[in-house]
Amino acid sequence: DVIPQVLGVVLDKRPKGAKPYKMPQVCPACGSSAVREVDEKTGRVDVVRRCTGGLICPAQAKERLKHFVGRNAFDIEGLGEKQIEAFYAEGRIMQPADIFTLQGRDARLPEDKRLAEQKGYGAKSVENLFKAIEARRKVPLDRFIYALGIRHIGETTARDLARSLGSLAAF
Predict the structure, then answer these.
(1) Distances, alpha carbon 111 to alpha carbons 34, 56, 78, 101, 115, in Å
(2) pTM score > 0.85 for this model?
(3) 142: burial class by Cβ within 10 Å (0-12, 13-18, 19+)?
(4) What is the rounded CA–CA span in Å between residue 49 and residue 89?
(5) What are the beta bridge partners of residue 33?
(6) DSSP 8-state symbol, 15
(7) 66-71 long-range contacts, CB within 8 A, separation 24+
(8) Average pLDDT score, the chain
(9) 6-53: pLDDT as tens digits
(10) Residue 48, SS3?
(11) What's the maximum distance between 2 C-alpha atoms anywhere in the chain?
């Protein structure tokens, strides 16, 4: 619970010949511009540099999926960071909706391409994954809103929105 404060640079520890770090101007994943936005409230330039690629950026897509299945969102057991990375690379899960069609699409694949035949998986682990996905088809509205990953909408704001709106239709 201690937040450190940077007091200054320790020049004695800096290697000789070190060059200043240049922040990337383009996203290394998709090539879109990387920008520092202006904070609307303060008018100051944000310290964070963000990719402007949005939906075309594979790095952002993977992070959105990880957020969607995270503990405070849909909380799908057996579908963590490692699995999302692998499934995205294989083209099995590219967007959140793909999670809920995974079992049906897997069943239509040739037997040697099915998930149970892939390294690190077996019939039981795949069955458990599909059961976990099925169990999370319905989640409370606040968890759904949070899972969407809308910027500036955290758990508390998602809970407030869900309480205020009351239903998905109202949302």
Answers:
(1) 42, 31, 22, 17, 9
(2) no
(3) buried
(4) 25
(5) 26
(6) P
(7) 67/147, 67/149, 68/96, 68/99, 68/147, 68/148, 68/149, 69/99, 70/147
(8) 93
(9) 888 899 999 999 998 888 999 999 999 999 988 888 889 988 889 999
(10) strand
(11) 62
Write the CA distances from 109 to 21, 105, 112, 117, 133, integer angstroms. Answer: 47, 7, 8, 11, 19
Q: Which residues of 56-71 are buried (b: 16+ CB within 10 A; e: fewer)?
A: ebeebbbebbbbbbbe
pLDDT digits (tens, 9 = 90+) for 108-145: 999 999 999 988 888 999 999 999 999 999 999 999 99
CA 76 to chain centre: 13
User: What is the per-residue DSSP string for 81-139?
Assistant: HHHHHHHHHHTS-SSHHHHTTHHHHHHTS-GGGSGGGSTT--HHHHHHHHHHHHHTSS-
Residue that is written with structure tokens 């149970």 in the block: 116
State the average pLDDT over residues 77-91. Answer: 94
Q: Distance between CA 77 and CA 136 in Å, rounded?
A: 9
d(CA 83, CA 35): 30
